[in-house]
Structure formats: C-alpha cells, structure tokens
C-alpha cells in the first residue's frame, strides 16, 4: 500500500463494531463520571438507561428531529442498541466494578477516547449527506444537521440532564460551548464547504486530516490538565474583528465577572442575586 | 354466547363513545385534583384547556412525536376533541360544581376509573400496531410507542405542568415511575412479545386478562389507601439480581445523602428542603 | 384604481423583501430590549444568533413541528436567513450602535412595528392554507397552525429564553397571553371561519380590514403608555358568561393577588414564597 493511499483506505474504515463500541464506552464512562449519576443508576435503572442512550445516540435523535424523522428511529437498529445497553450494564452494574476500573487505566481510556473521536468524523459526513438528500444544496441545513449529528449528546445535554432530574437552565452548549461541540461545528462547516466544492480538497483527505486533528487534540487535552483550546487565538481575533467594536478593556473585565456570575446556580442566596443584578444594571449602562 | 368466547367478543368492544368519555372524565378529574389547577382554570381557561387536552390525548401526542407524525393530529378528530372539551367545561366550570360533586361519589368514581383502564389496553395495542406499520418488526420501537401511547399523559407530565406554570425538574416518571406508567410498560412488553409470537397466547385472551388485571388492581388501589404495588416483590428480586451486586450498607448511606441533595427541588425554601431530604433518606433506608 | 379594489390589490402585496425586513428589524429590536440580551450578545454571539432566528422564524419553526415537517426548514431559504442575520449583526454589533439608535427614533420605530403587523396577516393565512393541505377541513388544526405561524415567537418564548440561559416556568403565553398572541388567535379563528365559508366576507376584504385593525391597535398601544387591550370588555363579558358562575366578588380580589404573585420570579426570597403558598392554600379552601 502506498503512503498516498492511506487517506482513501482510512475513509473506507467500517465503524461497526469496534469504533461504535468505543463510542458507547466513552459516552457511558462520561455519564458515569458526572455528579449524581451513580446514585441515579441505583435509584432508577430505567432513567439511567435512557440517559445513556441519549449520550450514545443523541446525535441521531437530534438530527432526526431536525429533519422530521422519527427520533426513536435508532431503536430499529437492535444490534447497536443492545451493544450500547451491554456497555451501560457493564459500566454501571458490573460486579466489583471491574469494567469501570479497567477503563480508568489511562492508556485504555486514551484509546477509547481517540476511537470515539474517529466516529465523530463519520457522523458529521453522514449527517451532511443525509441533510443533502432531504434539502438539495441547502448549505445552512447541511451545517446544522452535520453539527447536530456529530455533537448531539452535548447539544441536548439540558434535556438529557432533565431525565436524571437535573435542570441547569443557566448553562447550555450554545451559551458556553465545550471544545467537542466547537470542533464539531468547525468540522460541519468544513465538510459542507467540501460538499459544495468550495474547498479544493478531496473528501477522503479532509476526513483523514480532520480526524487526525480531532484525535491529537483530544489526547493532548486529556494528558495536559490545564489545556487551552486550539481555537482560543482564532476566537479572540475573530471576536475582536466581528463583535468587539465597542469593548474598552475596563468593560471587558466587568463582563468576565458578569459571565461568571450568570453561569452560577439558578438559586443563589438573595445577596448574591442582588449583587449580580446590580452588576448587570451597571453593565447595561456602560454598554449604552 | 359461550364462556370461552367472552375474550373474543371483549376484544371487539368499541371504545367510542362510552369508554373514551370515561377516559376524558377520569383524566379531567385527575387534573382538577392537582394542586393549583382550580386557580389556573379561572386565571387562564386556555392554559387549563390545553392542559386537559394533554391529559386526555397525551399518549397520542407523544407517540405521534416518536413516529414523526403531526403531534396535533388528534385535533383532526373533532368529535373526540369536542367531547373532551365538554367534559373539561363541566368538570371545571359547571354551575354549583354539580358535575364534580357527582363524580366524587365513590362508586361512580370507581366505574369511571375502571373504564379508563380498559382504554389503556386498546391504546397499547393500537400503538404497537401503529409502530409496526412504520418499522417492520422493530420490537424496541413497538415497546416504546405502545408504552408512550398507553401512558402518554404520565410520561409528558413535566411539560404538561409547564403549561400550568409549574416546573418540577427533580421528579419525572422515568426517575420515579408511578404505578400506571409501570403497568403500561409491562403491558407494552407483553403485547410486543405476543405480536412477535414469542408468547404462546392468543391476542384477545391476552387483552382480556391484562385488562382484568388493570381494572382489579386499579379498583383495589383506590379502595385501600396504603396499597402496595403488585410489582414490588418482583422489582425487589429483579433489582437485587441485576443491579444490586455491590451495595454494602455503608456505601448506601453516603450515596443516599448525595442523591437527596442533587435531586432536591430547585427553589424550595430552606426549611422544606431539609424536611424533604430527611424524608428521602428515611425512604431510601426503608427500601433497603 | 377604484377605491373598492384597494383590498384586492392589498391582498396581492409581496412580503419579500421590505415587509420581511421590517419584521426582522422589529423582532431583533424586541429581543435586544429584553433584560440581559446585550450581555448575551457579547458572551456568546451564537446563542444570540439562535435566539434572534427564533424571534424571526419562530412561527415557521412551531408550525413545522406541529405538522411534522422539518423545524429547521426555514434555513433552506438562504436569502431570508442571511437578511435576518444581517439585521441581527447590525442591531447588536454595529459600530457606535448607529443602527439601534436610528430605529429608536419613534416615527421609524412605529413604521417598522406597523409593517411587522402586516406580515402577521400573511403568516396566519399562510399557516391555514398549509394546514389545510395536510388535513382537509380539520378546522381545529387550521386554527392551531394559523395561530402558531402568526404568533410563534411568543408561543415558544419559554424555549427561546432557555437558549439565552433564562428559564421562567411560572409564566408562559398560555397562562398570561400578551396582546399580539391574543389578536393572532382571534385572527386565526376569523380566517379559518372564512376558509370554511362560515363567514360571509371575501378573503381579501377580511385580510384588508384585519390588517388595518392590527396596525391601528399596535400603533395606538405604542403611543399610549397605559393602553388597555381592545379585547378587555369582550373578555370580561365572555369570562363572566362562560367561566364565572361561582365567583363572589371577594374571591375575585384574592385571585387577582394570586395571579400577580404567581407570575413573579422563580427564585423569590423564602418569605415571599411562603406568603404566596399561604395565599394559595387559603384560595383552595375558599374555592372548595
């Protein structure tokens, strides 16, 4: 096999079963490590199962809703659902917690996380192709569906948490995007541009290099605790260019304070609340 | 008519108009007895009407959403909607409250509740048939849609309450299933098994015996105030077998503490909050 | 052109681009004037953009959901979305805030608001025609979809606020209808009656007079600060006739108090909360 053909062969990789399995394991582990998840798993195994399914198949649910298809359509693929359910059972209820302890071993954890990122590329391109079959060349819908399919679990996190009895209206993935959601949006834009032939690169090459980027940044961020998003400098420049006309530096600081106070819990003690209200009023005055 | 033919004739019973009417009456009475519902009915008759419709047609709304059909499709059946609206009007705004007082008379109440349970069987089987017409032999979707159609009002209760300005994220029917939702899930599984011919029983026989079980348990639970769910022993055994491997008592306690703090209401006053936490802890201990 | 032909010509008016543009400007200005919106626009431009799109295309999103069509279908119309995005950019990020200051000039503001009301008529009739193409002569669905298309931004306001991290479950447009939502409901009923030929008036005449009514009341309400809804007397009579049988005047007063307390913020200080709970309990006693 020549070196130049690696991307082409890579783009023909089958996701089922190994990569899908890794995605389910990484998703279930991610859920298990959220606060209160273990308790929910004993209180109500059904809520825990639904929550896990939303983590594993959230992209499918969200993109189906967007294209007016059955949001429970993923259940028709019994093999994948049973696989994900098996993973759910092993992660939460395995005797002696053997399964979870195994995958807490860093090298194994890194491998699973890396493989999960590979499935992301496939999901984005799948979503874009699917959207294109519904709406011919509607590039905004392609971006939206590709994004939703690739980052579904994150985008619906508010409603996934609601299943577990948790409601955090003050934060969502649009207000404060996490890195995976951000990188999926960038990917959805790139693959849509490639699809509409605005980007002079072959599809399999883009898939190859985007996946490499995903895996490398993911692994790096897991290994370095205080990692900075690779988008931070671009965001700063772009934000300054597009949205930052009227930001004097002093203003910026008070805004940072504001954002931190507004993402705090919804039921602060009255005193905190008044402070933040006061801050908001001042902020409005300054901006005006 | 022979005795052996009773189930067959029973399975041909028409739900419209008598049984449907009983379902609407029982649903509207159930809503009226919820805290704050009478005030809402005077503040905003429209919110009260929408809420009543969600109680009466919730199963239809939820199963339509699941199968990517119009969630307001039930409105196309004007006769049923007008019947339900008439019931809504009589339950909430009848002069001297005659209607509500009539149906507070226990024997009448029992009859209506029993008839409502009969419609449940019809809804579950209807949902399963409907799901099967969309996804051939996808048994997970059949169970999901049968369950949603039969117990829709319960499953969407969080959003039904939102219409009335009430939001209780800390509780939902997946986290803490009520008896009707639980028995509908069991029914949906049984009828799906029957549909895929894994259960050696004729459909009309299963309908007959399942309905008898529904009506008898419902009436029993209404007559005995501190009734225990007939599923409690099975659940205990099943929970112990499947999910209970690693529960040392010491672990449980710390877990109970954690769970109560995370599932408590988002805006309780501090005192209520502590009380309910205490209650939950006691509850958890009892279950153990 | 004769005077009698004015309504006919009026009914053939094209909404694109001028009236659509006015709708986007009025919607974006409305959003910008909500508390906290300016801060969100700097914290997260994407959340602000999504929120603005929900304000501009909320009717389309909601009516698509109701008829089981793609809720993101409006994105396929790239021209309109780009136009709305341009307006969003100018309203929130224009250097020196020139755009916002221009449209704060009252005569310009009135013109834009008036033109927005014109689009409402077109949306209602569009929604009714659309619903009729799905469900032949289902008048309840026609009213519902016409209403949703015309007043979508208002009806989904709870979820639009959620995008901005705000959650006010205690108030929604069904519990306490704003004037635009109310007048759209009346319009949807009138146009449905006209569609089913129960109303002896030509379609273009109804469109003409309904739009005049919309624009005149809107402009009047913007000019007179303490304006009373023109429906208030009808509502009082209708409410008394249909829903007010058992209301002694004393009861009414406590109810008014109640409603005002129930629409207060979701995170009241404990003392307010207890008072309102107490009031509710007393209320329940009185009603029973």
From TrEMBL, chains A, B, C:
| Gene name as annotated | TMEM38B
> Annotated region Disordered: where?
251-288
Q: Which PANTHER family match?
A: TRIMERIC INTRACELLULAR CATION CHANNEL, TRIMERIC INTRACELLULAR CATION CHANNEL TYPE B
Q: Where in the cell is it found?
A: Endoplasmic reticulum membrane
InterPro entries referenced in this protein's UniProt entry, alphabetically? TRIC_channel
Which family does the record claim for this protein?
A: Belongs to the TMEM38 family.
Q: Where is the composition biased (Basic and acidic residues)?
A: 274-288
Give the record's GO CC terms. Answer: endoplasmic reticulum membrane
Topology in the lipid bilayer: Multi-pass membrane protein
Molecular-function GO terms, alphabetical = identical protein binding; potassium channel activity
What's its job? Intracellular monovalent cation channel required for maintenance of rapid intracellular calcium release. Acts as a potassium counter-ion channel that functions in synchronization with calcium release from intracellular stores. Activated by increased cytosolic Ca(2+) levels.
Protein name according to UniProt: Trimeric intracellular cation channel type B
| Transmembrane region(s) | 6-26, 46-68, 74-94, 206-228
This enzyme catalyses: K(+)(in) = K(+)(out)
Quaternary data: Homotrimer; conformation seems to be controled by binding to diacylglycerol (DAG).
């Amino acid at each position: 096999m020549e070196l130049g053909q690696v991307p082409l062969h890579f783009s023909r990789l089958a996701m089922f079963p190994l990569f899908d399995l890794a995605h389910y394991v990484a998703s279930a582990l991610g859920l298990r490590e959220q606060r209160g998840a273990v308790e929910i798993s004993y209180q109500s195994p059904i809520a825990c199962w639904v929550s896990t399914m939303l983590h594993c198949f959230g992209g499918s649910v969200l993109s189906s809703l967007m294209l007016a298809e059955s949001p429970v359509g993923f259940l028709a693929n019994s093999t994948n659902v049973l696989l994900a359910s098996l993973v759910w059972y092993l992660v939460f209820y395995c005797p002696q917690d053997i399964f979870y302890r195994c995958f807490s071993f860093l090298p194994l954890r890194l491998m699973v996380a890396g493989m999960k990122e590979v499935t992301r590329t496939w999901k984005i391109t799948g979503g874009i192709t699917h959207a294109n079959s519904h709406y011919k060349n509607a590039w905004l819908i392609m971006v939206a569906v590709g994004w939703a399919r690739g980052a579904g679990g994150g985008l619906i996190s508010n409603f996934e948490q609601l299943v577990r009895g948790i409601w955090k209206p003050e934060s969502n993935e649009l207000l404060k995007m996490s890195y995976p959601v951000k990188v999926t949006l960038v990917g959805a834009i790139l693959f849509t541009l490639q699809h509409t032939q605005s980007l002079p690169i072959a599809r399999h090459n883009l898939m190859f290099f985007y996946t490499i980027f995903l895996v490398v940044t993911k692994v790096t961020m897991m290994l370095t605790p205080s990692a900075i998003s690779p988008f931070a400098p671009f965001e700063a420049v772009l934000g300054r260019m597009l949205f930052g006309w009227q930001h004097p530096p002093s203003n910026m600081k008070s805004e940072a304070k504001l954002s931190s106070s507004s993402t705090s819990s919804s039921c602060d003690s009255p005193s905190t609340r008044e402070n933040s209200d006061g801050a908001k009023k001042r902020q409005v005055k300054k901006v005006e």
